[in-house]
Amino acid sequence: MKSIQGSSRRIENFSRIVHFFIALILGGFLSALGNKVLDDLDNWYVSPVYTDYEDTGKIEIIKNRSSAIDSRRLELKEKLSQLESGLASAVSNYNSEKESFNNWVKTRETIGDPNQDPEIKAKLKKLDELNEISSSWQTQINTLGDSLASLRQQEKLIYAELNAQVEIAEEKFNADLRTYRLKIFLIRLVFTLPILVLGLFLFMKYRDTKFKAFVWGVVFFSLYLFFIGLVPYLPSYGGYVRYIVGIVVTVVVGYYLIKQITIYFDRKKAELQKSMEERVDTIQYSTAFKSYQLHSCPSCEKDYHLIKDTDNKPNFCIHCGLLLFKNCSACGQRNYAHFEYCSSCGVELKSKKDE
Ligand SMILES: [Zn+2]
Ligand SMILES: [Zn+2]
Protein backbone atom coordinates (compact mmCIF):
# COMPACT_ATOMS: atom_id res chain seq x y z
CA MET A 1 0.00 0.00 0.00
CA LYS A 2 2.88 2.27 0.81
CA SER A 3 4.49 1.83 -2.61
CA ILE A 4 1.23 2.68 -4.44
CA GLN A 5 0.68 5.74 -2.31
CA GLY A 6 4.28 6.77 -2.83
CA SER A 7 4.13 6.52 -6.63
CA SER A 8 4.20 9.97 -8.14
CA ARG A 9 1.60 11.37 -10.43
CA ARG A 10 4.01 11.33 -13.34
CA ILE A 11 4.51 7.57 -13.04
CA GLU A 12 0.74 7.09 -12.82
CA ASN A 13 0.25 9.06 -16.03
CA PHE A 14 3.07 7.20 -17.74
CA SER A 15 1.59 3.88 -16.74
CA ARG A 16 -1.80 4.94 -18.05
CA ILE A 17 -0.29 5.89 -21.43
CA VAL A 18 1.65 2.60 -21.64
CA HIS A 19 -1.52 0.64 -20.88
CA PHE A 20 -3.45 2.63 -23.46
CA PHE A 21 -0.90 2.03 -26.22
CA ILE A 22 -0.57 -1.67 -25.42
CA ALA A 23 -4.37 -1.97 -25.67
CA LEU A 24 -4.47 0.09 -28.88
CA ILE A 25 -1.66 -1.78 -30.64
CA LEU A 26 -2.94 -5.20 -29.58
CA GLY A 27 -6.47 -4.21 -30.68
CA GLY A 28 -5.08 -2.96 -34.01
CA PHE A 29 -3.17 -6.15 -34.81
CA LEU A 30 -6.07 -8.36 -33.73
CA SER A 31 -8.47 -6.32 -35.90
CA ALA A 32 -6.15 -6.57 -38.93
CA LEU A 33 -5.92 -10.33 -38.43
CA GLY A 34 -9.70 -10.57 -37.95
CA ASN A 35 -10.30 -8.67 -41.20
CA LYS A 36 -7.94 -10.96 -43.07
CA VAL A 37 -9.78 -14.02 -41.77
CA LEU A 38 -13.17 -12.53 -42.66
CA ASP A 39 -12.00 -11.70 -46.20
CA ASP A 40 -10.72 -15.25 -46.66
CA LEU A 41 -13.99 -16.67 -45.32
CA ASP A 42 -15.88 -14.63 -47.95
CA ASN A 43 -13.92 -16.42 -50.68
CA TRP A 44 -15.57 -19.71 -49.79
CA TYR A 45 -18.48 -18.57 -51.91
CA VAL A 46 -18.31 -16.78 -55.25
CA SER A 47 -20.57 -13.80 -55.70
CA PRO A 48 -23.13 -14.30 -58.51
CA VAL A 49 -22.53 -12.19 -61.65
CA TYR A 50 -25.55 -10.79 -63.48
CA THR A 51 -24.35 -11.59 -67.01
CA ASP A 52 -24.28 -15.31 -66.12
CA TYR A 53 -28.05 -15.18 -65.74
CA GLU A 54 -28.88 -13.81 -69.19
CA ASP A 55 -30.11 -16.23 -71.89
CA THR A 56 -27.47 -15.04 -74.35
CA GLY A 57 -28.75 -17.25 -77.20
CA LYS A 58 -32.25 -15.80 -77.06
CA ILE A 59 -31.00 -12.26 -76.57
CA GLU A 60 -28.67 -12.66 -79.57
CA ILE A 61 -31.59 -13.73 -81.79
CA ILE A 62 -33.71 -10.79 -80.62
CA LYS A 63 -30.87 -8.34 -81.18
CA ASN A 64 -30.27 -9.69 -84.68
CA ARG A 65 -33.92 -9.13 -85.51
CA SER A 66 -33.66 -5.65 -84.13
CA SER A 67 -30.63 -4.78 -86.27
CA ALA A 68 -32.36 -6.22 -89.37
CA ILE A 69 -35.25 -3.87 -88.70
CA ASP A 70 -32.80 -0.98 -88.24
CA SER A 71 -31.20 -1.53 -91.66
CA ARG A 72 -34.63 -2.00 -93.30
CA ARG A 73 -35.75 1.29 -91.83
CA LEU A 74 -32.65 3.08 -93.14
CA GLU A 75 -33.43 1.68 -96.59
CA LEU A 76 -37.03 2.88 -96.43
CA LYS A 77 -36.00 6.33 -95.19
CA GLU A 78 -33.63 6.72 -98.13
CA LYS A 79 -36.38 5.67 -100.52
CA LEU A 80 -38.77 8.07 -98.83
CA SER A 81 -36.47 11.01 -99.41
CA GLN A 82 -36.20 10.04 -103.11
CA LEU A 83 -39.99 9.83 -103.38
CA GLU A 84 -40.38 13.17 -101.64
CA SER A 85 -38.03 14.93 -104.03
CA GLY A 86 -39.91 13.23 -106.94
CA LEU A 87 -43.19 14.51 -105.56
CA ALA A 88 -41.77 18.00 -105.09
CA SER A 89 -40.64 18.23 -108.74
CA ALA A 90 -43.97 16.79 -110.00
CA VAL A 91 -45.88 19.37 -107.96
CA SER A 92 -43.69 22.17 -109.25
CA ASN A 93 -44.15 20.94 -112.89
CA TYR A 94 -47.89 20.97 -112.42
CA ASN A 95 -47.88 24.44 -110.82
CA SER A 96 -45.78 26.04 -113.56
CA GLU A 97 -47.93 24.42 -116.26
CA LYS A 98 -51.04 25.67 -114.52
CA GLU A 99 -49.64 29.21 -114.30
CA SER A 100 -48.73 29.30 -117.97
CA PHE A 101 -52.19 27.95 -118.81
CA ASN A 102 -53.83 30.69 -116.75
CA ASN A 103 -51.73 33.36 -118.47
CA TRP A 104 -52.52 31.89 -121.86
CA VAL A 105 -56.24 31.97 -121.02
CA LYS A 106 -56.05 35.65 -120.08
CA THR A 107 -54.50 36.57 -123.50
CA ARG A 108 -57.43 34.98 -125.31
CA GLU A 109 -60.34 37.39 -125.89
CA THR A 110 -62.99 34.80 -126.04
CA ILE A 111 -62.97 31.35 -124.65
CA GLY A 112 -64.92 28.81 -126.53
CA ASP A 113 -66.30 25.55 -125.32
CA PRO A 114 -63.30 23.53 -124.17
CA ASN A 115 -64.77 20.46 -125.76
CA GLN A 116 -64.83 22.28 -129.11
CA ASP A 117 -61.46 23.97 -128.77
CA PRO A 118 -58.76 21.39 -129.44
CA GLU A 119 -56.01 23.70 -128.19
CA ILE A 120 -57.65 24.08 -124.74
CA LYS A 121 -58.47 20.41 -124.69
CA ALA A 122 -54.82 19.49 -125.24
CA LYS A 123 -53.61 21.87 -122.54
CA LEU A 124 -56.19 20.64 -119.98
CA LYS A 125 -55.27 17.05 -120.76
CA LYS A 126 -51.61 17.81 -120.10
CA LEU A 127 -52.52 19.41 -116.75
CA ASP A 128 -54.51 16.30 -115.81
CA GLU A 129 -51.58 14.08 -116.66
CA LEU A 130 -49.23 16.15 -114.54
CA ASN A 131 -51.66 16.02 -111.63
CA GLU A 132 -51.88 12.26 -111.93
CA ILE A 133 -48.09 11.97 -111.79
CA SER A 134 -48.12 13.96 -108.52
CA SER A 135 -50.84 11.71 -107.10
CA SER A 136 -48.92 8.56 -107.99
CA TRP A 137 -45.83 9.89 -106.10
CA GLN A 138 -48.05 10.67 -103.14
CA THR A 139 -49.54 7.17 -103.20
CA GLN A 140 -46.08 5.63 -103.12
CA ILE A 141 -45.12 7.88 -100.20
CA ASN A 142 -48.22 6.81 -98.29
CA THR A 143 -47.47 3.13 -98.84
CA LEU A 144 -43.95 3.66 -97.60
CA GLY A 145 -45.31 5.46 -94.51
CA ASP A 146 -47.41 2.40 -93.73
CA SER A 147 -44.35 0.18 -94.00
CA LEU A 148 -42.45 2.44 -91.60
CA ALA A 149 -45.34 2.36 -89.12
CA SER A 150 -45.37 -1.43 -89.21
CA LEU A 151 -41.61 -1.43 -88.58
CA ARG A 152 -42.14 0.72 -85.49
CA GLN A 153 -44.72 -1.77 -84.26
CA GLN A 154 -42.27 -4.65 -84.69
CA GLU A 155 -39.60 -2.67 -82.88
CA LYS A 156 -41.92 -2.19 -79.92
CA LEU A 157 -42.54 -5.94 -79.73
CA ILE A 158 -38.82 -6.65 -79.83
CA TYR A 159 -38.21 -4.14 -77.06
CA ALA A 160 -40.87 -5.84 -74.92
CA GLU A 161 -39.27 -9.24 -75.57
CA LEU A 162 -35.86 -7.90 -74.51
CA ASN A 163 -37.36 -6.44 -71.34
CA ALA A 164 -38.97 -9.75 -70.51
CA GLN A 165 -35.60 -11.47 -70.90
CA VAL A 166 -33.96 -8.93 -68.55
CA GLU A 167 -36.71 -9.40 -65.97
CA ILE A 168 -36.32 -13.18 -65.96
CA ALA A 169 -32.53 -12.86 -65.55
CA GLU A 170 -32.81 -10.21 -62.82
CA GLU A 171 -35.25 -12.26 -60.81
CA LYS A 172 -32.96 -15.31 -60.75
CA PHE A 173 -29.87 -13.16 -60.15
CA ASN A 174 -31.42 -11.27 -57.22
CA ALA A 175 -32.61 -14.48 -55.57
CA ASP A 176 -29.11 -15.98 -55.78
CA LEU A 177 -27.53 -12.71 -54.60
CA ARG A 178 -29.76 -12.72 -51.49
CA THR A 179 -28.76 -16.30 -50.71
CA TYR A 180 -25.10 -15.45 -51.24
CA ARG A 181 -25.28 -12.44 -48.90
CA LEU A 182 -27.07 -14.44 -46.24
CA LYS A 183 -24.38 -17.14 -46.40
CA ILE A 184 -21.60 -14.55 -46.05
CA PHE A 185 -23.42 -12.97 -43.13
CA LEU A 186 -23.91 -16.29 -41.32
CA ILE A 187 -20.25 -17.23 -41.79
CA ARG A 188 -19.21 -13.84 -40.39
CA LEU A 189 -21.67 -14.22 -37.52
CA VAL A 190 -20.26 -17.61 -36.55
CA PHE A 191 -16.78 -16.05 -36.47
CA THR A 192 -17.53 -12.70 -34.78
CA LEU A 193 -20.21 -13.55 -32.23
CA PRO A 194 -18.02 -15.75 -29.97
CA ILE A 195 -15.34 -13.03 -30.06
CA LEU A 196 -17.89 -10.39 -29.05
CA VAL A 197 -19.08 -12.60 -26.19
CA LEU A 198 -15.45 -13.14 -25.12
CA GLY A 199 -14.83 -9.36 -25.27
CA LEU A 200 -17.91 -8.62 -23.13
CA PHE A 201 -16.95 -11.35 -20.66
CA LEU A 202 -13.39 -10.01 -20.29
CA PHE A 203 -14.76 -6.47 -19.96
CA MET A 204 -17.09 -7.45 -17.13
CA LYS A 205 -14.63 -9.69 -15.23
CA TYR A 206 -11.09 -8.52 -15.90
CA ARG A 207 -11.14 -4.87 -16.97
CA ASP A 208 -9.39 -3.69 -13.77
CA THR A 209 -6.76 -6.41 -13.36
CA LYS A 210 -2.97 -6.24 -13.69
CA PHE A 211 -3.07 -7.21 -17.37
CA LYS A 212 -6.03 -4.98 -18.21
CA ALA A 213 -4.20 -3.59 -21.26
CA PHE A 214 -4.56 -6.98 -22.97
CA VAL A 215 -8.18 -7.20 -21.85
CA TRP A 216 -8.94 -3.78 -23.35
CA GLY A 217 -7.12 -4.74 -26.54
CA VAL A 218 -9.41 -7.75 -26.95
CA VAL A 219 -12.46 -5.61 -26.05
CA PHE A 220 -11.59 -3.05 -28.77
CA PHE A 221 -11.02 -5.89 -31.20
CA SER A 222 -14.33 -7.60 -30.45
CA LEU A 223 -16.28 -4.33 -30.81
CA TYR A 224 -14.47 -3.44 -34.02
CA LEU A 225 -15.10 -6.88 -35.49
CA PHE A 226 -18.78 -6.83 -34.58
CA PHE A 227 -19.63 -3.30 -35.70
CA ILE A 228 -17.31 -2.97 -38.70
CA GLY A 229 -16.95 -6.58 -39.78
CA LEU A 230 -20.48 -7.85 -39.22
CA VAL A 231 -23.11 -5.12 -38.99
CA PRO A 232 -22.64 -3.82 -42.58
CA TYR A 233 -23.30 -7.38 -43.81
CA LEU A 234 -26.63 -7.68 -42.01
CA PRO A 235 -29.27 -8.65 -44.56
CA SER A 236 -31.52 -5.62 -44.71
CA TYR A 237 -34.97 -7.06 -45.59
CA GLY A 238 -36.13 -3.51 -46.21
CA GLY A 239 -34.40 -2.08 -43.11
CA TYR A 240 -36.28 -4.27 -40.62
CA VAL A 241 -33.30 -6.33 -39.45
CA ARG A 242 -30.99 -3.33 -39.04
CA TYR A 243 -33.49 -1.35 -37.00
CA ILE A 244 -34.37 -4.32 -34.81
CA VAL A 245 -30.68 -5.07 -34.19
CA GLY A 246 -30.18 -1.37 -33.32
CA ILE A 247 -33.04 -1.54 -30.81
CA VAL A 248 -31.76 -4.77 -29.23
CA VAL A 249 -28.18 -3.45 -28.92
CA THR A 250 -29.43 -0.18 -27.39
CA VAL A 251 -31.60 -2.03 -24.85
CA VAL A 252 -28.81 -4.46 -23.86
CA VAL A 253 -26.10 -1.77 -23.57
CA GLY A 254 -28.53 0.66 -21.91
CA TYR A 255 -29.62 -1.98 -19.40
CA TYR A 256 -26.00 -2.71 -18.49
CA LEU A 257 -25.11 1.01 -18.11
CA ILE A 258 -28.18 1.80 -16.00
CA LYS A 259 -27.41 -1.19 -13.79
CA GLN A 260 -23.81 -0.05 -13.32
CA ILE A 261 -24.94 3.50 -12.43
CA THR A 262 -27.43 2.13 -9.90
CA ILE A 263 -24.77 -0.10 -8.35
CA TYR A 264 -22.42 2.89 -8.09
CA PHE A 265 -25.03 5.07 -6.37
CA ASP A 266 -26.03 2.26 -4.01
CA ARG A 267 -22.38 1.76 -3.06
CA LYS A 268 -21.93 5.50 -2.47
CA LYS A 269 -25.06 5.57 -0.34
CA ALA A 270 -23.85 2.59 1.72
CA GLU A 271 -20.45 4.26 2.14
CA LEU A 272 -22.00 7.47 3.43
CA GLN A 273 -23.88 5.47 6.01
CA LYS A 274 -20.67 4.25 7.63
CA SER A 275 -18.98 6.16 10.47
CA MET A 276 -16.54 8.91 9.55
CA GLU A 277 -13.53 6.87 10.78
CA GLU A 278 -14.49 3.94 8.57
CA ARG A 279 -14.93 6.22 5.59
CA VAL A 280 -11.58 7.93 6.13
CA ASP A 281 -9.88 4.53 6.05
CA THR A 282 -11.53 3.45 2.81
CA ILE A 283 -10.58 6.59 0.90
CA GLN A 284 -7.73 5.85 -1.52
CA TYR A 285 -4.82 8.24 -1.79
CA SER A 286 -5.35 8.83 -5.53
CA THR A 287 -9.05 9.62 -5.01
CA ALA A 288 -8.22 11.98 -2.15
CA PHE A 289 -5.54 13.72 -4.20
CA LYS A 290 -7.90 14.27 -7.15
CA SER A 291 -10.63 15.53 -4.81
CA TYR A 292 -8.22 17.98 -3.20
CA GLN A 293 -7.43 19.49 -6.61
CA LEU A 294 -11.13 19.78 -7.44
CA HIS A 295 -12.14 21.05 -3.96
CA SER A 296 -14.58 18.18 -3.70
CA CYS A 297 -15.14 15.92 -0.74
CA PRO A 298 -13.47 12.50 -1.41
CA SER A 299 -16.47 10.73 0.13
CA CYS A 300 -19.64 12.48 -1.08
CA GLU A 301 -17.92 14.21 -4.05
CA LYS A 302 -19.67 17.55 -3.38
CA ASP A 303 -17.86 20.89 -3.39
CA TYR A 304 -16.54 21.73 0.11
CA HIS A 305 -14.91 24.97 -0.95
CA LEU A 306 -18.14 26.96 -0.98
CA ILE A 307 -16.67 29.68 1.22
CA LYS A 308 -13.88 31.20 -0.88
CA ASP A 309 -12.27 32.91 2.12
CA THR A 310 -8.78 31.28 2.35
CA ASP A 311 -8.51 31.91 6.10
CA ASN A 312 -11.75 30.14 6.71
CA LYS A 313 -11.18 26.69 5.19
CA PRO A 314 -13.61 24.12 6.58
CA ASN A 315 -12.28 21.27 8.70
CA PHE A 316 -15.20 19.00 7.89
CA CYS A 317 -17.34 18.44 4.79
CA ILE A 318 -20.50 20.47 5.22
CA HIS A 319 -22.48 17.87 3.23
CA CYS A 320 -21.44 14.56 4.82
CA GLY A 321 -19.30 15.44 7.83
CA LEU A 322 -16.07 13.85 6.60
CA LEU A 323 -12.82 15.14 8.13
CA LEU A 324 -11.08 17.28 5.48
CA PHE A 325 -8.35 19.30 7.25
CA LYS A 326 -6.57 18.82 10.52
CA ASN A 327 -3.53 20.16 12.37
CA CYS A 328 -0.29 18.17 12.54
CA SER A 329 0.04 16.65 16.00
CA ALA A 330 3.82 17.28 15.95
CA CYS A 331 4.13 20.86 14.67
CA GLY A 332 0.57 22.09 14.54
CA GLN A 333 0.65 22.83 10.76
CA ARG A 334 -2.76 22.65 9.13
CA ASN A 335 -2.87 19.84 6.50
CA TYR A 336 -5.31 18.19 4.17
CA ALA A 337 -6.30 15.23 6.30
CA HIS A 338 -5.94 12.63 3.51
CA PHE A 339 -2.33 13.45 2.61
CA GLU A 340 0.32 11.10 3.86
CA TYR A 341 2.81 13.48 5.44
CA CYS A 342 2.78 16.88 7.10
CA SER A 343 3.78 19.60 4.66
CA SER A 344 5.78 21.41 7.35
CA CYS A 345 7.62 18.77 9.43
CA GLY A 346 7.20 15.58 7.35
CA VAL A 347 5.64 13.55 10.15
CA GLU A 348 3.30 10.84 8.93
CA LEU A 349 -0.23 12.24 9.31
CA LYS A 350 -2.26 9.05 9.32
CA SER A 351 -0.23 7.22 11.93
CA LYS A 352 -0.40 10.26 14.18
CA LYS A 353 -4.16 10.20 13.89
CA ASP A 354 -4.27 6.53 14.86
CA GLU A 355 -2.32 7.09 18.09
ZN1 LIG B 1 -18.63 15.14 2.02
ZN1 LIG C 1 3.98 18.79 11.13
Secondary structure: elements and pairs:
Blueprint: H1 2-6, H2 9-42, H3 56-107, H4 118-206, H5 212-230, H6 240-273, H7 276-282, H8 285-294, E1 325-327, E2 334-336, H9 349-354
Antiparallel strand pairs: 1-2
Can you walk through the features of this model?
The protein has 355 residues and is an all-alpha fold. It folds into three domains: 16-235, Helix Hairpins, CATH 1.10.287; 238-273; 276-354, no CATH class. Helix content is 72%, strand content 2%. It contains nine helices and two strands, in the order H-H-H-H-H-H-H-H-E-E-H. Strands 1-2 form a two-stranded antiparallel sheet. A hairpin with a 6-residue loop joins strand 1 and strand 2 (334-336). Helix 2 (9-42) runs parallel beside helix 5 (212-230), helix 3 runs antiparallel to helix 4 and helix 4 (118-206) runs antiparallel to helix 5. Mean pLDDT is 86; it is low at 1-6 and 351-355. Bound molecules: zinc ion (2 copies).
Oligomeric state of the chains in view: single chain
Shape: elongated
State the helical fraction. Answer: over 70%
**How far do the termini sit from each other?**
20 Å
Largest sheet: 2 strands, antiparallel
Query: CATH fold name of the largest domain, please?
Result: Helix Hairpins
CATH class of the largest domain: Mainly Alpha
